[in-house]
Amino acid sequence: MDYYLECTRCGSGFDNDYGKQICAKCGGILEVVYKGRLKIPKSAIFWDYESELPDSKYTHYALGGTALVESNLHHGLFLKLELYNPTGSFKDRGSVVEVAKAKEYGYDEIAVASTGNMAYSLAYYARTAGIKTTVFIGGAANPNKVKDILMTHDAKIHRVHKDFSAAQDAAIKYSRRTGAFLAGDYCYRKEGQRTMAYEVAAQLKGFTHIIVPVGNATLVSGIAKALREMRINAGIIAVQARGCSPLAKAFKRRKPIRYETPHTKADAIAVGNPAYGDEAVREIRESGGAVVTVEDKEMAACQEMLYRSDGVRAELAGAASIAAYRKLKFGKGDKAVAIISGGNI
Ligand SMILES: Cc1ncc(COP(=O)(O)O)c(C=O)c1O
After folding, report:
1. Cβ neighbours of residue 3 under 8 Å, at least 6 residues apart?
2. Nearest to residue 224, comparing CAs of 189, 203, 196?
């Protein structure tokens, strides 16, 4: 659909030929604002939502449309199996939008900061589109993910010997210096990721809660946007690792997000300064939801439990939503959807 971009910090507007994801005036994150009325189809097929995505020339890769099943663990707990996307996580939904836009604007290189899954996903689709990927990855990244990025998709990797937030700064500087398309947790990714909530709505009538693991908070913001678009009232439950929980603290103290050094083995959600954090806090509160923290050992226990009960082999971040579910009290008629966000172990 036709759209324009609006800066979430200073309110500046940009036409859709702008070709960047950061505000030229203040460096703020941009938001996609659609010009027409969305007609969201009741479908669990990713490309049925093409007209609900920012206009571009999309290649129809086989992604999304992931299964939603009731778990054998608890009655009323449903699993949205995002680990069965082609690169093992929900990131593919946003990557196909970013790659299409990069191609449309004529870029031949993408720069991205990642904890692993995003770079793996972007490099996969960029390569098929003939675009090279340069990845900035934090010191605590999972070595298996780094190996996959290098071996499968030809990407160039810069290790940043600090955390993800430092990698993000490095990617921004690199894209300014070289003119590479800055991809990652920005506006186009958020648009792709919101399709997950469209699918959930098509797959499960009357769900009451949606449980979402949080790193940079792009997924939770995308889901909140989609629920608003569909006028669905469901409580958004965000989950963070106890050792990296800036969102939980901001939510509790009713204060803006403050950076904290991540201490968690759940590498995919080890983000100390979530880019969409303040927006996510607002959205979660408005939905009547909550932010829950879980210990690494609780995620590990749920990882094992999920494998035994449902045959689903999630990574730690992917099992975080189950750990959160077990900490909360749900009513008899509640239907909670746990996003099993990734399976790259
Ligand atoms: C498996 C997995 N779960 C959850 C997240 C968190 O998503 P977001 O950064 O959009 O909050 C990520 C992000 O990398 C991820 O890879």
Report:
1. 16, 32, 33, 34, 35, 54, 55
2. 196
Task: Indicate if the alpha-carbon torsion angle 124, 126, 131, 133 is positive or negative.
Answer: negative
The number of folded domains in the chain is 3
Q: Residue with the nearest Cα to atom 15 of ligand 1?
A: 268
DSSP code of residue 108: S
10 Å CB burial of residue 187 (0-12, 13-18, 19+) is buried
**Residue 239 belongs to domain with CATH number:** 3.40.50.1100
Q: Does residue 236 form part of some domain? A: yes
Place of tokens 């999920």: 306
Domain containing 23: what range? 3-37
Of 90, 121, 264, 273, best ligand 1 pocket probe by most atoms within 8 Å of the beta carbon: 90
Picking from 186, 220, 236, the residue at the C-terminal end of a domain is 186
Q: What is the mean pLDDT of residues 215-232?
A: 97
Q: Is 342 helix (H, G, I), strand (E, B) or coil?
A: strand
> How big, in percent rounded to 5, are the helix, strand and coil portions of the chain?
40, 20, 40
Q: What is the pTM of this model?
A: 0.97
C-alpha to C-alpha distances, 3 to 22, 54, 164, 211, 316, nearest whole angstrom = 16, 6, 30, 29, 36
Integer CA distances (angstroms), 103 to 38, 51, 58, 126, 182, in order: 25, 18, 10, 9, 12
At 88-111, the pLDDT tens digits run 999 999 999 999 999 999 999 999
Residue 244 resides in a domain: yes
Among the atoms of ligand 1, which is closest to the Cα of residue 216?
Answer: 9
